[in-house]
Amino acid sequence: MSENILEVNDLVKHYPVTQGVVFKKTVGQVKAVDGVSFGLRAGETLGVVGESGCGKSTLARVLMNLEKPTAGNVVYKGQDISKLSGGALRRLRRQIQLVMQDPYTSLNPRMTVGDLLGEPFEIHPEVAPKGSRRAKVRELLDLVGLNPEHINRYPHQFSGGQRQRIGIARALALRPEIIVCDEPVSALDVSIQAQVMNLLEQLQGEFGLSYVFIAHDLSVVRHLSDRVAVMYLGKIVEIGTEDEIYERPTHPYTQALLSAVPVPDPTQRNNKTIIRLTGDVPSPISPPSGCRFRTRCWKAQDVCAEQVPLLEIRRGSDHPSACHFAEKREIVATHEV
Amino acid sequence: MSDILVSEQSAPGPGGSGRPSGRLLEVDDLRVEFRTRDGVAKVINGVTYHVDAGETLAVLGESGSGKSVTAQTIMGILDTPPGFVTGGQVRFHGKDMLRMSDEERRRIRGEGIAMIFQDALSALNPVFTVGFQIAEQFRVRRGMGRAEAKKRAIDMLDQVKIPNAKGRFNNYPHQFSGGMRQRAMIAMSLALDPEVLIADEPTTALDVTVQAQIMDLLAELQRERQMGMILITHDLGVVADVADRIAVMYAGRIVEEADVYELYAKPAHPYTLGLIDSIPRLDEKGQQLRTIKGLPPNLMNIPPGCPFNPRCPMAQPVCREKVPPLLQVGPARASACHFAEELVNRV
Questions:
Q1: What is the ipTM for the molecules in this complex?
Q2: CA–CA dist A143, A170 (Å, integer)
Q3: What is the rounded distance in angstroms from the CA atom of residue B160 to the CA atom of residue B180?
Q4: N- or C-end of chain A: fewer Cβ atoms within 10 A?
Q5: What's the pTM value of the predicted model, to 2 decimals?
């Protein structure tokens, strides 16, 4: 087992809910991320899946140090990154980069591609001396499969998929070790999505990158990830290797999530295990006591309301799961292709 | 239905065959272009499809393929300008809707054909309660009184399985969750018991567990009411679960039409084949995904010949010269590819 390059320990991020204008008072906390721990190994892809509101994007922001955690920490190579500031933080940013979901709003429409990709070098001049920057930018464009001749074009002259490639090139400019991808392909059409996914895989092989790959699409996550963490209401409910999560899920939420994904094969219509969840995700301001999933869970017992199930390996299972009644169940009949 | 009306109204339009055929809803050789400052975009270039009572036709395509514009033209909600219908017909019970008066079309909307949209929050009016917006239809279209309309609206909310429908009647759209809003919109569109429901990406903005709930609900309501349904989507997974027939669109044309089982088992168009190959699947551990190279064409400058030829791995010189027509390649399936026969007959 290779060593963890990034470690997340008991990370908590709460946002205050305030009332009033003049005499503002805090009336509650949105518990966006509420005690998340995991390690990221060098060269691996850790997928983070969950539905909207589960805290996966907040997690990305805290990992990037765009938000300070309420409690807990993120440790990069022995360094607690949430304590860094100034020059030390700037140096760290070279190592951890972000690819955002929306290639339309994450690129400044008034900057040419050359400026957009050259900007990282202005902030970190030590990476590329002034004279070599244009050449570096061309190299980057070529790397992500764009025509280096288009260096003077503006973002609106590119399609969605091409813009996402620009976003990836920008994240790559400083040769980081870790890239946090927050829904990088969900805004793209099917035929373009596959191109971008292949590009991410190819770049990982070429530069030995580690990815934290955040997405809601379970099929995409399966395709790209070595390990997968499933989140629900600010907590990781199950974590394991791709096989463990997709072939032997033990948490009821993971099982329900997997069973709800439509498989593009009409012959599977009637021989699928379908677990239908009722109701909606509860509010993260006042999550249910004990296990947060219990209000929608078909296995819930009294103990689920009283005790928070820990994320740990239980009897009959080979990977950590936060359920008092964790039990293996095959949902997806997997075959190799 | 009056035969006289049919013969009067179905004079062949440009390109339209104009024959009444007893179909519920037919789109016949529809052509739409968008006239913009930058030029004319040919968004729909001869689309023909139909849907009958009780069946689900899935219209599958990527952004810009024209699948939503076709639906907007059927509903008569195409923005004009910039959008203009330049040919073809949309026949409802054999009668061309494009030649009807506004009043006639209005009568079909809601009662004949209704539509639900992807983004329920912007489709619902934020300043009226959900209940009012549903009840309004009963009052305006059915002439009911306030109390009766309210009763019917609550009944509709109940049918789409909104818990505590009575209490929810007075809520505003923003007080509903995403899934609930979609249910409310379904209730609204089904209030007047339409014969055809057009669902334009109804679950794209929803989480997968909620998506499953909504698709179940739609399937159940369709079965009960024997509605024809046109499901517009880009999601090959959703289509595989619910569709009877599929029409695949590319650059404003239908490139393949087939029964759902045949389409997935043996696509007869290289674009369909490419799409199916390029999606990651939940039940597959895989290596590199196969991709379709390049980008969809610019609709202001569609390549000559087959619009898919620059991206097609099978392209031959003939593909750059002749537009392949949508031809039968088997019982109840058609493909617009010069080499469709070879694709279907391959082992």
A1: 0.82
A2: 11
A3: 9
A4: N
A5: 0.86
